[in-house]
Amino acid sequence: MTPFKAERVVRTYTMTVCAPPADVFPLLCPVREYEWIEPWSCDMIFSAGGMAENNAVFKTHFPAQGGQETWIVCRYEKDRAIEFIRLVPDLKVNRLDLSLTAQGGGTVLTWTHTYTGLSEPGNQWIRALTDEAFRSEKAALERMLDHYLKTGTMLKMADLDLETDPYAR
Hints:
alpha+beta; 7-stranded antiparallel β-sheet; 7 strands; START-like_dom_sf; Polyketide cyclase
């Protein structure tokens, strides 16, 4: 029997939004994402304060992301960075590192995903994640976040004028 060899890919996307890090950072919270991401849904498992914080745990279920996923906040630096470990058992681990840098009156927000397959189906999921699909998903999030910061209202998926749903692949 050939031993399993995990595949890994790192993808990065940098977005610029119209508000300072102090306004952007609180929105990078599983509870606050309901305000600006239309398809967002999660179940908070543990958070002493009820919001994003170091060691908070929550779950999501998005089929395009591999199904039920457990998220753990493993780094929390207010207004600077937040990091998550995202686990889909027997499929993949995704380390998501978000860093915020003030630029002018706005924020440069860098999303770095490190995907590691935990099985052959996980490796296949990673191989299927194209650069185009990754960029499309992040570009949609950038538009949603910037719109929310400008207007205080959610930009609906139907208003994004996308050729394909970035959350379905």
